[in-house]
């Protein structure tokens, strides 16, 4: 339902909308990986010398499941790679969204008006490239666990710093617009983009709170399992980690819907929630803020 809402309702710039949709669609990578790997994890099917395996990492390569060339199974390797790609996408997604916010602030004068396909292509490429590189590093055990962990941790810390700095910059622009009033120094497009940036930051900061809980809780659980700090609770940690990763839409999707007024209105209308009778005159005169700005922009560009 969240995917339908994001597609149908025009609430953000096409770049933000595209990145949000990619993030939501990537959950199906998890479904595919889980569907293929689960029989080997719970012991219905076996690989190697009647071995089950866990999908998480281990610094000790001798504890890996040993597979001969005759036993190599391409669907298992593909499912494992896609599964890890989904996980690393969750870890790097916020960083790519923060990069998009930099461009939104830098090109504030014509970010909405001027189409930049190269920028969108670059953001999409980054969105897939960073997780793919991290997945290859972990999949082939190129770096020790702590180094790979540091890459993911640094990516999220840098994303938080970028979001805070761009948020402060955008707020200063809004304060400047309030001071100068209707001066022609800044175009209507600039004013609209600054307000859209504010709405986007509201979504991203709410998303950040949810992601902070999910991502860092997951990383802590992985640390506990890899270094066997409390080995007696290994199965419990694994169970919690599996649920956090695969059921993250139960937290992220409500955050997205409730963070955007137009999304929430569409959602309530679709499920007939809290529908009240209103005065017809008020309905005719009520125009959404976003629709108003788009109408003004359209007139100003003619």
UniProtKB/TrEMBL annotation:
Highest taxon of source: Eukaryota
Subcellular location per the Swiss-Prot or TrEMBL entry: Membrane
Gene Ontology biological-process entries: sensory perception of chemical stimulus
InterPro entries: 7TM_GPCR_serpentine_rcpt_Sre, Nematode_rcpt-like
Protein name per the record: Uncharacterized protein
A GO CC term attached to the entry: membrane
Alphabetically ordered keywords of this record: Membrane, Transmembrane, Transmembrane helix
Keyword Transmembrane appears in the UniProt entry: yes
């Amino acid at each position: 339902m969240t995917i339908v809402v994001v597609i149908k309702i025009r609430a953000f710039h096409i770049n933000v909308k595209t990145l949000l949709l990619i993030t939501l669609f990537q959950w199906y990578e998890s479904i595919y990986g889980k569907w293929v790997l689960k029989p080997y994890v719970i012991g219905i099917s076996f690989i190697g010398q009647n071995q089950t395996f866990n999908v998480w990492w281990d610094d000790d390569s001798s504890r890996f499941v040993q597979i001969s060339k005759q036993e190599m199974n391409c669907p298992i390797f593909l499912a494992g790679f896609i599964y890890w790609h989904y996980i690393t996408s969750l870890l790097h997604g916020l960083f790519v969204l923060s990069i998009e916010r930099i461009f939104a602030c830098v090109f504030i004068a014509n970010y909405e008006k001027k189409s930049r396909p190269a920028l969108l292509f670059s953001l999409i490429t980054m969105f897939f490239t960073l997780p793919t590189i991290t997945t290859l590093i972990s999949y082939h055990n190129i770096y020790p666990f702590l180094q790979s962990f540091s890459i993911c941790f640094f990516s999220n810390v840098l994303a938080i710093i970028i979001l805070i700095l761009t948020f402060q910059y955008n707020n200063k622009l809004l304060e400047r617009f309030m001071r100068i009033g209707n001066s022609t120094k800044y175009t209507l497009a600039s004013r609209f983009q600054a307000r859209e940036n504010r709405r986007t930051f509201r979504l991203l900061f709410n998303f950040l709170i949810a992601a902070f809980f999910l991502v860092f809780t997951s990383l802590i659980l992985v640390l506990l399992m890899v270094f066997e700090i409390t080995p007696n609770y290994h199965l419990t940690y694994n169970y919690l980690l599996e649920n956090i990763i695969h059921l993250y839409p139960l937290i992220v999707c409500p955050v997205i819907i409730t963070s955007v007024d137009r999304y929430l209105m569409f959602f309530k209308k679709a499920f007939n929630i809290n529908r009240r009778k209103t005065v017809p005159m008020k309905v005719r005169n009520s125009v959404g803020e976003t629709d108003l700005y788009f109408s003004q922009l359209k007139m100003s560009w003619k």
